[in-house]
Each structure stands twice: as structure tokens, then as C-alpha cells.
Amino acid sequence: MVKSSKRFNELANAQYFSMHEWTFHRDNVRKMMVDVKTLKDSEIVKLNRDVDWERYITIYMTGIEKFILKEKFKSIDASRQRLSVLYWIHQIIQIFGIIAILAIISYTIY
């Protein structure tokens, strides 16, 4: 109970940052990129705009699980598989709920 309460509090603390829409301005980054190109050390400093966002998010979410949520390390594929199973369980429960409601309605009408 204490572990789940602690985890809930950690998620609640992170809620502000995850639930708000943020606007980031890139003016300083653009200026820095122009300045670096003019330096003689521009070959050493690599500024890459081609970010593999899917890989970045995968690594980011793994870090969130490991360091913030303190979960045991598990692969993304295992997490996706578990999420898929939970999704289908939820769908089946909803179908049975609808059938139960329709049965109650038809029972009260007839």
C-alpha cells in the first residue's frame, strides 16, 4: 500500500509537467547554430537536426520507467504487449456491461 501511495504521489507531482501544453522558442538555438558555423571549431561541434524521434521517445520512456517510476527494467515490447492485453480485457468488460444493461432494460420492459 505504501509503495503504490508513493508511486501515486510521484505521478501526481509529474502531472503538472505532463498535462500542460508547452511552447518552446528556438530563436537562441538558431542563433547558436549560425554562430557555431562561423567558428573554426565548427567541425568539432556537431549540431544535428535529424533526430530519430521514435528512438528518442522509446529511450525517454524507458528512462521515465527506470528512474522516475522506479520500475524494474522491462522491454518496451513487453510493455506494449501488456498494454494490448489490458486494452482487450477492457473492451470485453465494456461489451459484457452493454449486454447486461440491455438485458436489464429488456427484462424491465417485458
From TrEMBL:
Ranges where the Fatty acyl-CoA reductase C-terminal domain occurs: 2-71
UniProt xrefs under InterPro entries: FAR_C
Pfam families according to UniProt: Sterile (PF03015)
UniProt KW keywords: Membrane, Transmembrane, Transmembrane helix
Membrane-crossing segments per the record: 85-109
Source taxon at top rank: Eukaryota
Protein name per the record: Fatty acyl-CoA reductase C-terminal domain-containing protein
